[in-house]
Amino acid sequence: KSSQNLINIDFIGISFRDAGNLKYKYRLDGLNRDWNYTFNTQVEYAFLPPGNYEFEVIAINSDGLESENPASLSFTILPPFYYTWWFIATMILFLTAIAYYLYSLRLKQIKKENDLRNDINLYRQQALSKQMDPHFVFNTLNSIQSFIIKNDSLASTQYLSKFAKLIRLILNNSQNQAVPLDDEISALTLYLELESLRFQKKFKFELLIDPAINSSSCFIPAFLIQPFVENAVWHGIMGLKGTGHITVELKKNHNEITCIVEDNGIGRTKSMEMKTPEEIAKKSFGIKLVEQRLELLNNLYDINMKVLFVDLYSENGKPSGTRVIINLPMIS
């Protein structure tokens, strides 16, 4: 056996003249073919490697005469099982199968990631088209025209400048999967300023940014916040008789950014009652796009982004607005 590689060999020569004073020469063929000399009648070999061996010993008397034929002993030390051909062949087959399985798994993962990225790009382009909504563009240009007709050159110039900056930001952001938080804040500010001017200060707004957030180096997925701000304007504030108020708050929460969009509008239930089926479908499409993008991003990056809608009520139980909470990852 492979573990039996410590060998002790005893031998003795017979001589009536030199009893007990014989010299011996010996060798272990398979380890070393050189002869060794000793007066001992025992030799020991430790840690012999696997292989075939033949031990030979010759007795030498005091006159230097050697025995005619060497005494010999043959033995074999078997290799351990992990050196046998069948084990090596089995391991090669096993490792080949593992490598092929991992290769196939990686191919499937790459294909899945590519499919997810393609789907994300598709929904991102749809989100872009939603932000570049023809109605919004048309209404904005109408407002600019109205200022021009009234000879309000200052207002028309400011309005046109803000609109141009917003369009440039939207087009720039459309090229990237994630955008700097600074750009997203600028786009939201411009959008709210344009809508506030167009509706003659019907609502006020404020953006609250957590000081712990480095907005210049922090990136978030593009086109995720704006649809909820748009809903706050059109489906919350527009049906309100008094002055509306919209708050967009960004707070750092470990490796996430919690975005809270809150309005003091008429609430979701009242808004649904006032809308036509076409308007309801349009609103649902915008939110559905965001939710589908969130699901795809969750699968791609193994994260847990989600949207929570909270209906707000006054002390007497009447609807007093809507709060939307969005968990966004901070992307490096």
What keyword list fits this structure?
332 residues, alpha+beta, Immunoglobulin-like, Heat Shock Protein 90, 2 domains, 7 helices
Query: pLDDT average, as an integer?
Result: 82
At the fold tier of CATH, the topology name of the largest domain is Heat Shock Protein 90
What order do the helices and strands follow? EEEEEEHHHEHEEHEEHHEE
Q: End-to-end span in angstroms?
A: 59 Å
**CATH homologous superfamily heading of the largest domain:** Histidine kinase-like ATPase, C-terminal domain
Got a strand count? Answer: 13
Runs with pLDDT <50, length 5+? none
Q: Approximately what portion of the residues adopt beta-strand conformation?
A: 25-35%
Strand order of the largest sheet: 8-10-11-13-12
Shape call: rod-shaped
Radius of gyration from the alpha-carbon trace, in angstroms: 43 Å
Helix content: 40-55%
Instruction: Please summarize the sheet with the most strands.
Output: 5 strands, mixed
| Annotation field: number of helices | 7
- Classify the secondary structure makeup into a structural class: alpha+beta
CATH architecture of the largest domain: 2-Layer Sandwich
CATH level-1 class of the largest domain:
Alpha Beta
Counted up, domains total 2
